[in-house]
Amino acid sequence: MKVNVEVECSPEEARRFLGLPDVTKANEAYVDALTNAMQGTTNFDQLNELTKQVAPMGQMGLKLFQQFLENGVAMAMSGATTKPK
To answer: In 10 A of CB 16, how many CB atoms?
Structure first.
């Protein structure tokens, strides 16, 4: 048997329902800092150096983060639970 459930809600409602923290202010501060840093870049070398500062692990860091998210989704989809200690 297959059951499909569609839920219509705003991103804010979904965040609250899932119990996720509101990171709006942290995100705004990060975007502002990044915008201010990028205003001083005038060529590719400066942009490359800025990128290294923002994401020090570069491609490897992004790949690790992607694997982290994929593993979390796989666990959630399989219904895996952790036993309390």
So the answer is: 12
pLDDT in tens, 13-71: 988 988 889 888 988 888 887 777 777 767 777 777 767 766 666 667 767 777 877 88
Q: Note whether 71 and 64 are within 8 A (CB).
A: no
80, pLDDT greater than 60: no
| Exposure of 22 in the CB half-sphere (CA atoms within 13 A) | 5
Six token digits for residue 70? 């994929």
The per-residue pLDDT for 74 is 78
Query: Where does residue 41 rank: exposed (0-12), middle (13-18), buried (19+ CB within 10 A)?
Result: middle
Rounded Cα–Cα distance for residues 48 and 77 (Å): 38
Other beta carbons less than 10 A from residue 55's beta carbon: 13
